[in-house]
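Write out this protein's structure.
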Amino acid sequence: MLGVGIFLNPRLVAAEVSSLPAFFAMWLLGGLVAFAGAAAFAEMGAMFPQTGGEYVFLRRAFGPSVSMAAGWTIAVIVFPGSIAAMAVAVAEYQLLPLLKGAGVTLPGILDTPRELAYLTVFLFSLLNIAGARFSARAQAVLTMTPVFFFAAIAIAGSGTVPQATSAVAHASDSGFMGGFSAAFVAVYFAYSGWNAVVYVAGEVERPRRNVPLALLVGTLSVTVLYALLCIFFVRTLGLAGVAEAHEAGSAAAVAAFGEGATVPITALIAIAILASINGTVMGGARVSWAMAKDRVLPEPAGRLNSLGVPHVALWLQAGVAVVLIATGGFEELLQLTSVTMLIIGAAAVLALFKFRHSDPDRERPFRTPLYPVLPATYVVLSSFVIAYLMWDAASKVASGGEHAQQAVYILIGAIGFVAAVAGHSVWSRFRRSAGA
């Protein structure tokens, strides 16, 4: 979860709100929604501890058409798009500045953010080829180091003298709904990853206990850390300063501790984002593997190497990520993946209601607290934001203008998902008719 979103997206949120309470409310709302989703996934993940995540839940709840559409969308858009967005961001804002600051001369083919992003995708795909246990150990080191230091920095930095904290950003002219939806998407992307463990649930020891534990404790811990970091950002920069900072972490650290903090903070942020990339690479290939085992994807995607790793699926995912890096910048990829994640997440949480209704007697090692309020909160809020964003994007594309291109990215995932559901349904009916 701790990745590029908490450092690049505060400026997007601050630009859409007009007060500090609204800024903090958006980040806390994001934590609440992530926890609501995590609680629902905890129940389903403990019931069905299989590799594949939402694909597994949706197939059991709604059948092959919905699960296939979700699986294809996850495999082609969500995971490769997330990997591409993070790789582009870390290359531009952390890796290149660190390397150039250290006097490292890169070959000509690696001296731009895009080329360095390609290399990042390749290296982390290669790392995961070495096995889930090895990549999981790397994940633990890459994750816990920045978590510990960022918590300490946020607490220490929040005690500094506030810098113009009464100043507010100039809210955008997109109105309340437009500002709320844009801010929510930015926050939602920052919290994405709360569900990552369900993608490798079949490889988790004692999954009926550890999958819910990882989902809930991880989500709560990151929510607390994000709250501390947001306090640190606005106390040192003010809300207007956050809106103007391309990357809030480094800007706040320099404001609090001086220019000497630039390199270590940038390095910590880079480690955190690389950890997020590693976790995303690890989880995404498992969806393609699960789909191939169900013969929804070509058979090679279901092959495992001698270490039990879906190596073909890993390279297919890397290839799609490279294509996406070549076609869009961070904000376009953010729009593409965030809206698509909202759609798939809402559909998967709906599966919990289906299981409670259709299979009430099944053993449930974990039960979602405050059911049905928590999962309903996730579904209703996500659906509301999705509906508005789709309407707004369609309007922008129809009218043209400077925002039309970014709006297209919002529409791609949703249209692809609906088209895949409809296409598979028609194909299934055709095959049944032909068989009859």
